[in-house]
Amino acid sequence: MLRAIRWIAYGLVLLSAVFWASVWLNGGVPEIALRAAEAVGLIAPAPGGTQAQAAPLQVGGPFTLTDQTGKTVTDADFRGKWMLIYFGYSFCPDVCPTELQTISAVLDKMGEAAKQLVPVFITVDPARDTPAALGEYLKLFDDRLVGLTGSSEQIADVARRYRVYYAKVAAVKAPGSRDGAETDGTYLMDHSSFLYLVGPDGRFRALFRQGMDVDALAAEIGQRMAAGS
Ligand code: NI
Fold first, then answer.
1. What pLDDT was estimated at residue 151?
2. Number of domains in the chain
């Protein structure tokens, strides 16, 4: 026992000597010694950490939301199918209806392959888009659409994961109103507008900008699904 402690002491003295000798020879603390010291917790990692590269930008991820029937659903419930996700809200006066029509047309265009693709509409306006309101709204476009809502925290979380921007803005009152108020008390949601393709493993695959041609969109999604990429 005593002998073991003595050998450990010798070892530490030797390591220390090697360390300071290398400092002297290199004109500074060598990189490997710094990394070793960080690894054992002797010193704090340098700013920026020891990893050579920052993590790649992540899009997508887990969520827990409520569908238009009132059922709690998570991202895991969609495993095995592809998802085409759009973020919007039912009071949207222009862009959302157009994109929902596009999604419906893409599914029609894809034919049989569309059975493996679930179109998902996630609201950025959960205060007004209750499950029932979403259900009524989405029926106007396509029965295949799954509408998802949730608490404002749940929506904020899934929007953050998908890098979706949204913000409440007061609706401007119709021209000609004379009471001096600039808004009528209602609001619109400013929001980013992209389609997200998510694979059957739950990983994000592709981003499509709004206003894409139905044929081009159907072709690209169909190719990715066929290739599994
Ligand atoms: Ni919209």
1. 98
2. 2
pTM for the structure as a whole: 0.73
How many A from CA of 2 to the centre of ligand 1? 76
90 and 3, same structural domain? no
Please give the mean pLDDT across all residues of the chain: 83
Contact 200, 81 (CB under 8 A): yes
Cα 217 to middle of ligand 1, angstroms: 19
Both 63 and 27 in one domain: the answer is: no
CA distance 86 to 88: 7
The alpha carbon of 32 and the centre of ligand 1 are apart by a number of angstroms equal to 53
On whether both 100 and 7 belong to a single domain, the answer is: no
Predicted confidence (pLDDT) per residue in 116-172, tens digit: 999 999 999 999 999 999 999 999 999 999 999 999 999 999 999 999 999 999 877
For residue 54, pLDDT over 70 is answered with no
Residue 29 sits in which domain range?
A: 1-45
Angle among Cα 141, 146, 151 to the nearest 5 degrees reads 115
From the CA of 62, how far away is ligand 1's center (Å)?
23
d(CA 145, ligand 1 centre) in Å: 16
Q: Are residues 110 and 214 in the same domain?
A: yes
Most confident of 3-7, 54-58, 169-173: 169-173
Rounded distance from Cα 111 to ligand 1 centre (Å): 27
What's the CA-to-centroid distance between 124 and ligand 1, angstroms?
9
CA of 50 to the centre of ligand 1 (A): 42
